Amino acid sequence: MKINPPPVQFIVFSGGGGLVSRRQVVKIVPGLNTFDIDDVPAAFDPRTATVELLNAPAGMELVQLNVKRPDKSIMNQFIQREKGAATNIINAATDLRGQNREKIIQMIESTHYRAYEDVLGSFTAIISSKVEKEVDLEVRYFVEDARIKWEPSLHISIDKDAKAATIEGFIVVMNNSDFTYPQCELGFAEFELERQPDESGGYLNELQEEQAAQNIVPQSKMMQNLRRMKNLVL
Amino acid sequence: MKATLLPRENVRLAWFKAENVKFQHDRKVELSYTQHNLQQDAISRTGTFQIVFQDVPKQVPASQIVIFDKALGLPQSYSRTSGSVGPRLSTEWQDDLDLEITDRLVTYGTGKEEIKVEPPPPHLRNRLKEIEIRERDDLVTRKLVVKNLTARPIDGLQVKLYENKDIRFEKSKVEAFKKDPPEYTWLVNVQPDATGMVEFTLKLHVTKTFEIEKDLPPGAARTSPGRAPPLAQAANAPPFMNRED
């Protein structure tokens, strides 16, 4: 059965990527139950993928997890072809001022920036049960995508005469992936990293940097890059 | 906090707001000298400052800061913080444009020279007769003049002097607020559009080393095993070479 648990929590890491928790109530029937989880990005780290059955009764257990990421070179060929098609649409368009202009530009932009990490991976959970019951199924995985990250920003208004200040803290979250995380609880973790990512921009400062950040080559082994957690903002 | 992250979008989320946070400006000017700049008539110095906020209710990671003047409602400076330390949050040190600082030479007293003669090291004994070391301690008095360019008094400007192996602190007109060799700190308060100053004397240890070469019979050319100098150069060569440390 295909299921698409909505994200309930997303802890975004300062160096990029994050831990996604998705949860859905599923009906388990006696025997083997197979759940194909939809909308898992190919950027997910299969080693960190877990499935947990909350409030599961005795006799119900997770038997196995099947994870698969699509072939990178084949997908890249597809993506290149799509990018070529997007360029052709722009070149061949005689009038892009019509009603659908915004839609077309959005589609072309999405295609232009698409990367391997935006295609779908495969994540299947097989659960065996002796009883029939509805349980909460929670899926967790780390997304290795440097295009998703966060940065704090402070606005401080100082009154020099009264020697008092008003501090406003903001968190800027960058999601340059093709995935939507609707109304989920966000957390922000700051880590000391083994090596710093090549670039640190891409937030709301400079247009060029912001757009260049969409073309970052996503790094692998992002989890191994984490040395020590310094701070967690929830 | 709950939010929606849409594809290819930046989201700016309100995180916290803290009012009536007490703050102070920490200002400092750091002085360290070399044998060369200690003798200069005037040195233009740049102070630095940071703003330290006390009792900030959130632990803030390293982040950007935009500082606004409440009265003007305009941004004053862009800075960064390396993050909270307990309830304290401070900006990075930045150049202080509120102060004009000039470091002037007041007096330069040359000390009495002492001469020591030492035998050359074994590998130079074929060439050198002896090594002459001349040492003296010069006393240099300098005055740091700080002008406050603002309309508000500046309190507690830290003037930090760092000693090194040749330049040591001797005395000052005003007692240092903190003496922790090799670091000496004075606190200076400057009224608006006025000047403050710190005057101190430093001891400069000067060492000159001369390699005295062996006397040769008249007319004999001075040669080295590796390379023979031209005859004219050898004839005009000085009787000793010196090296200043």
Describe this structure in words.
The complex is a heterodimer of chains A (234) and B (245). Chain A is of the alpha+beta class. Chain A is built from three helices and twelve strands. Chain A has helices at 72-92, 101-113, 207-212, and strands spanning 2-3, 7-13, 18-28, 31-37, 50-54, 60-68, 122-129, 133-143, 148-159, 164-175, 181-193, 226-233. Chain A has a six-stranded mixed sheet, with no helix packed on it. A four-stranded mixed sheet of chain A has the order 1-4-7-6, with no helix packed on it. In chain A, helix 1 (72-92) packs antiparallel against helix 2 (101-113). The two termini of chain A are 34 Å apart. Chain B has a domain at 27-48 and 96-108 and 138-207: Immunoglobulin-like (Sandwich), CATH 2.60.40.290. Chain B has one helix at 231-236; strands at residues 2-5, 9-32, 42-53, 63-69, 74-81, 89-90, 94-109, 114-118, 128-148, 154-162, 167-172, 178-180, 183-190, 195-213, 240-244. In chain B, the strands form two sheets. In chain B, strands 2, 3, 6, 7, 8, 9, 10, 11, 12, 13, 14 and 15 form a twelve-stranded mixed sheet that branches. In chain B, a hairpin with a 4-residue loop joins strand 4 (63-69) and strand 5. Chain B is elongated and about 95 Å long. Classes of the chains: A alpha+beta (234), B mainly beta (245). Chains A and B meet through helix 2, strand 9, strand 10, strand 11 and strand 12 of A and strand 1, strand 2 and strand 4 of B.
